[in-house]
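Researcher: Go.
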Amino acid sequence: MALKMKELMAESDESKSTILFYIKEGILPEPQKPKPNVHLYDESCVQILKFIKYLQHNFSYSISEIKSIFQDNNFDFDGSFEMMASSLEIISGGRDSKWYSKEDFLSQLGIDEATLASYQSKGYLFERAKGFSSKEVEVAQILQRAEVLGLDCALLDAYVSDAKVLAQKENEVGSKLLQDDAVSHDARYELIFDLVLTLKPYIFNMHTVQAHQDNIKKDNK
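Model: Structure:
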């Protein structure tokens, strides 16, 4: 379904000047022009505008950073959970990520392919579509420090095991939520991001804090 400018403004809650600016910057696609003075916008523009606003408000991304994200990645704004997953992968890589090939990644960390393969097979580290980001470098360095200090891998294995269970549940809930016509599409889209990126880490971290506090209270008795 094609939208007129007023309809796009109403559905996306964005101003005409902002929409025209995004088109000029190449973030939004050019409208169709079936007749003189008639500009029609693809309905995917609503999702693109919502995604831009989410990145700005929740992660303080600049327009230049968002433009770079759109240039470097192919998004299919169809509202599916696959789109959610692709978006989450981009955001989780970090806003200023530098990308490394496998060879550069190994050189940067001073590890061999066997060590990398071990991290990957255990589910501790992942190679993305574009290679390895700065986030993977950070994670690999943590894993190296853990090995040096003799950390029991049972904790890391528990992270992986719980993450797989949660990922499956998130996929099921997310897919069902996106098909629920009783809730607006934009509200569903934003809720999935907030659940995965904000609520999940908050609950996990605060339970960690609570457990430490409870242990301190036990020790002081």
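Model: The chain has two domains: 2-77, 102-219.
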